[in-house]
Structure formats: C-alpha cells, structure tokens
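Technical annex, item 7. During the second reporting period the consortium partners agreed on a shared format for inverse folding records so that results from different sites could be compared directly. Each record opens with the tokenized structure and is followed by the designed sequence. A conforming record, contributed by the partner at site C, is shown below for reference.
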C-alpha cells in the first residue's frame, strides 16, 4: 500500500516534488518582482548612520560579548592561565607533561607538581625556559617564576623495625 495514491490521486513523492517546484517558481517570481522594484538584497552591509558606532541596544557578536564580560569582571588573566593549564601537554611536551602537572598560578608564580624528585629536579633545571614558554602564551611578564614540588608522601613512618641512619634514595621520600 506504500505506492497507493494519496489525496487527489497523487503519490506522496509526486506531491512533494510538485510542492518543491511550486516553491522554486514562487521564489523566482518574488526575486523578479524585487528586481523590477529595485529592491535587491544588498551584497554589503548597510552603513550605520551614527558613524559605525554600535548602539547599546544593537545585538553583539558572541566573541565580543564574552571578551567584554571577561574584561568587566577582571577574569581575562584567569581564563588565559586556565587555557594554558588545559593545554599543558601541548605546551611542555608529552614526556614532561606525563610526569608533571600545573597546580596553581598566583602573583606571577606557577606551582608545578612532579611525580618524583627526579622530575622535580628536571623541571627546576628547565624553569627559565618554562617561564619563557608560558609568557609566550600569556604575555610577557605574566609568569615570573616556576616553583616545583615533588611527590607528597607524608612523614616517614616510625617504628621498631626501622634502620636508623641515612634516609636512602632521595627519590623515595621527596
């Protein structure tokens, strides 16, 4: 019954094709009427009467509205830092990023956590180049220093079955 004629003896597919053809015909007729009246759609935007300045009631572009909101609230730097933290792997490289994580940014100082003291030492050695790279992303003078801490293993356990003396490898207890 899928090929049975619809209302008026036409199949639904035939009816849709006729409707689309009719719509194209009416659109062409409307365009021709507009040309005769000299009312073609503009190819360039209309010029504003007030010299191009936007009125407060005019709709704003989304990106501009977001930038204005961030500026009004003083969130520009926080958003930029969050973007850098989110792209940490891309900025510092996959190997360093797999062993480190940025934790905070305050007063020009980025605090980085390393998963071992060896990686903490590596980040300390790379601190100057990290500051330079982060300032490329955030703007000169935004990051002043990089502070690093190793793994937080907590206090060393005490007890009777403990060998007193040296602490052992520094990598074990930060």
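Designed sequence (site C submission):
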């Amino acid at each position: 019954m899928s090929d049975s004629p619809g209302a008026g003896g036409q199949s639904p597919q035939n009816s849709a094709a006729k409707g689309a053809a009719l719509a194209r015909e009416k659109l062409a007729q409307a365009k021709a009427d507009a040309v005769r009246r000299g009312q073609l759609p503009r190819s360039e935007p209309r010029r504003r009467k007030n010299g191009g300045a936007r009125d407060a009631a005019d709709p704003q572009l989304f990106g501009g509205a977001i930038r204005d909101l961030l500026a009004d609230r003083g969130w520009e730097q926080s958003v930029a830092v969050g973007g850098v933290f989110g792209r940490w792997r891309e900025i510092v490289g996959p190997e360093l990023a797999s062993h480190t994580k940025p934790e905070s940014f305050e007063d020009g100082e980025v605090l980085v956590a390393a998963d071992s003291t060896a990686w903490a030492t590596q980040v300390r050695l790379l601190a100057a180049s990290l500051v330079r790279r982060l300032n490329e992303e955030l703007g000169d003078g935004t990051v002043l220093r990089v502070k690093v801490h190793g793994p937080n293993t907590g206090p060393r356990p005490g007890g009777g079955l403990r060998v007193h003396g040296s602490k052992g490898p520094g990598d074990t207890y930060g």
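Residues 28 and 108 are 63 Å apart (CA to CA). The first strand starts at residue 100 and ends at 106. All partners now use this format for quarterly exchanges.
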